[in-house]
From TrEMBL:
SUPFAM superfamilies: YVTN repeat-like/Quinoprotein amine dehydrogenase (SSF50969). The gene is aztD. The keyword Hydrolase does not apply. It comes from Neorhizobium petrolearium. This is Zinc metallochaperone AztD. Keywords: Plasmid, Signal.
Length: 408
């Protein structure tokens, strides 16, 4: 795998850093991590200081939420699908790059005054200083400027998604990649049409080139300068193409893999690769430039959640329904350690039933345990539980934001 890029400074989806320059007399090296936890039984997000376990604020929502941190980690978006609303929370952590070192600015988290209404929001994709929100029943995506949002302003660029469908949009330089629905498919009145491909739009919204086939497109991730999408036929890559726009390229699954497909993807931060599901009890490590791009990983039980470690490039963590946490070496596709961290949470039942979720926060993994109203803190070096944080209600979705720098 090739060495990739460093996309951001914060979040479980961000790179962990160390300040490199000497501090002044009044400067201090600070490391801070915060957890943002959505409840399964009440429309609320709770902010928690990871070090102390203290609550930093409860933020009331319009509905139950999935959470996505921005690339910078300065904001967390609460996607409320059933309430037709997306709200944003300022995490209170900002890191600025000063070449030889980074500064960290720490404030109280707060709910931002700007919200985003639209029918059935389901996807929030962070990229650089933007968040792209997709509204299934609107047939549109909104590209949100994070800087303006943090100033209490609305700076949105709407992207036409052809027609309502369960889709996604991702920005790539001056272009936008948008899923394409099959508008000729026969569907019931309460159903959405299937996805049949991907198209590229320029800054003016004009389509560039033809639609690239990608049947039942679902799941997307960014790694280095590549964007990947899960399809029936394989994983569709979009590579930079300069002024001509991104160049789509299909990586077929091939005969070496069993029957299945990728529908969820994670992108490596310090190495260029992707990790995707392959059904409920398998994963695939995807090296886009390898002669054999797919490495199959068989799990001992069905997957509940999984995450990449932005600081330890070879580490991935998988939580399975038997309550085990597995450490995966993505370089060779082997599970090198397994530890029991929760009681079993079966995958049977409704897909939205309360089950644990995990987030990487520096040297620990934070795992929600909804039945016991806890966030369990797991030491990465030993995979042992170091402590627990009691959380009111039923903690469910979780993101971690943080890092270190000089505090002036």
């Amino acid at each position: 795998m090739r060495e990739g890029w460093k996309k951001s400074a914060l979040a479980s989806a961000a790179v962990f850093w160390l300040a490199a320059s000497p501090a002044g007399a009044d400067d201090a090296e600070r490391e801070v991590w915060r957890l943002f936890v959505a409840d399964h039984t009440a429309p609320v997000v709770r902010a928690i200081d990871l070090e102390t376990g203290a609550g930093l604020g409860n933020f009331d929502l319009k509905g139950f939420a999935a959470l996505t941190a921005s690339a910078s980690g300065r904001t967390v978006f609460a996607i409320q699908t059933e309430a037709d609303m997306v709200q944003a929370i300022s995490t209170g952590i900002a890191v600025s790059d000063h070449g030889e070192h980074r500064d960290v600015d720490i404030k109280a988290p707060e709910m931002l005054p700007v919200s985003f209404a639209g029918r059935r929001p389901v996807q929030a994709v962070p990229h650089d200083d933007r968040m792209i929100l997709f509204f299934d029943r609107e047939g549109r995506a909104d590209v949100v400027d994070e800087g303006a949002l943090l100033e209490g302003k609305t700076d949105i660029r709407a992207v036409d998604a052809t027609a309502p469908h369960h889709g996604v949009a991702v920005t790539m330089g001056r272009h936008t990649l948008v899923s394409v629905p099959d508008t000729e498919a026969e569907v019931k009145p309460d159903e959405l049409p299937p996805r049949l491909g991907l198209r590229v739009l320029d800054e003016s919204g004009k389509q560039v080139g033809d639609v690239t086939p990608c049947t039942a497109l679902h799941g997307e991730a960014l790694s280095a300068r590549l964007v990947a999408f899960g399809c029936e036929e394989g994983v569709l890559l979009a590579r930079p193409g300069g002024n001509a726009g991104p160049k789509p390229e299909m990586l077929p699954y091939g005969s070496s893999l069993p029957k299945g497909k990728v529908t969820t993807l994670l992108g490596g931060k310090s190495m260029q690769f992707f990790l995707g599901n392959f059904g409920e009890d398998k994963l695939v490590v995807i090296d886009p430039d390898a002669e054999e791009p797919y490495r199959l990983v068989e799990l001992p039980a069905r997957r509940v959640d999984f995450a990449l470690d932005p600081a330890r490039a070879k580490n991935a963590y998988i939580l399975t329904e038997d309550g085990d946490l597995h450490l995966l070496n993505v370089l060779n596709g082997s599970i090198v350690k397994t530890v029991r961290v929760t009681e079993p949470y079966s995958k049977d039942g409704h897909w939205r039933d309360p089950r644990p979720r995990l987030a990487v926060a520096g040297d620990v993994i934070a795992i929600t345990d909804p039945r016991h109203s806890l966030v369990r803190i797991i030491d990465i070096e030993t995979l042992s539980e170091s402590r627990t944080i009691p959380v009111e209600g039923m903690p469910f979705a979780i993101v971690a934001v943080g890092g270190s720098g000089l505090d002036h």
